[in-house]
């Protein structure tokens, strides 16, 4: 069964995203911003940010580009020790997702460029290098044990756009601002 997904991409105006980035001190030429609970009242249980559905949003922002994507910023399920990326600004770079899997299952994605803080179910905060990546989600699951995932129908366009903007601005990493709606 397919995971719940909005009927359209997020419609947030560029100016709102720019203001949020500035309010959180992000001034890099290229930035990513995730909104946890973007569809909080229109997808899943009203008033709640659900797990296991694409009820979040992720935007790519640069002077030349602004694009929105359906995303998941939560783990797919609840379980002791499962990580949720804490809100804040984190650095990401192009790398390989799934390094612990067979080579045929590994692919290019955005990987941690430095430590992140996560909140572990029933355990609390933890900071380090955990492989909390930004990668392709699934059709029947959001495919997250703490990662940020993009709907599979939008993944190729998302990664191509991020790579192109990083190349255009000669960047080795980009900031990812995660905020709660």
Could you characterize the architecture of this molecule?
The protein is α+β, with helices and mostly antiparallel strands and 181 residues long. The protein has one domain. The protein has helices spanning 14-23, 152-168, and strands at residues 31-36, 56-61, 66-72, 83-85, 88-97, 107-112, 116-120, 124-128, 134-136, 148-150, 174-180. The strands form 2 sheets. An 8-stranded mixed beta sheet has the order 6-5-11-1-2-3-10-9, sandwiched between helices. Strands 4-7-8 form a 3-stranded antiparallel beta sheet, with no helix packed on it. The longest helix is centred in the last third of the chain and has 17 residues, at 152-168. It is globular.
Concise structural overview:
By secondary structure, the protein is α+β, with helices and mostly antiparallel strands. It contains two helices and eleven strands, in the order H-E-E-E-E-E-E-E-E-E-E-H-E.
Main sheet makeup: 8 strands, mixed
Order of helices and strands: HEEEEEEEEEEHE
- N/C terminus separation: 27 Å
Total strands: the figure is 11
Class per helix and strand makeup: alpha+beta
Any low-confidence stretches, pLDDT <50, length ≥5?
none
Question: Which bin fits the share of residues in helices?
Answer: 10-25%
- Strand numbers in spatial order across the main sheet: 6-5-11-1-2-3-10-9
Rg estimate, integer Å: 15 Å
Mean pLDDT score: 95
Q: Quaternary arrangement of the chains shown? A: single chain
The number of distinct helices, counting runs of at least 4 residues, comes to 2
**Overall tally of domains:** 1
- What is the beta-strand fraction? 25-35%
Q: What would the principal axes of the Cα set say about the shape? A: globular
């Amino acid at each position: 069964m397919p995971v719940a997904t909005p009927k359209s991409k997020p419609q947030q105006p560029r100016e709102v995203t720019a203001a949020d980035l500035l309010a959180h001190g992000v001034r890099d030429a290229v930035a990513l911003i995730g909104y946890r609970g973007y569809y909080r009242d229109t997808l899943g249980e009203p008033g709640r940010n659900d797990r296991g559905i694409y009820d979040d949003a992720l935007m790519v922002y640069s002077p030349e580009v602004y694009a929105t994507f359906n995303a998941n910023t939560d783990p797919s399920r609840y379980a002791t020790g499962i990580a949720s990326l804490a809100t804040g600004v984190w650095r990401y770079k192009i790398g390989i997702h799934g390094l612990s899997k067979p080579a045929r299952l590994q692919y290019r994605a955005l990987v941690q460029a430095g430590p992140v803080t996560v909140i572990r179910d029933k355990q609390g905060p933890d900071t380090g290098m955990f492989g909390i990546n930004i990668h392709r989600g699934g059709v029947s699951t959001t495919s997250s044990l703490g990662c940020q995932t993009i709907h599979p129908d939008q993944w190729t366009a998302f990664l191509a756009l991020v790579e192109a903007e990083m190349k255009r601005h000669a960047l080795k990493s980009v900031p990812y601002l995660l905020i709660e709606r």
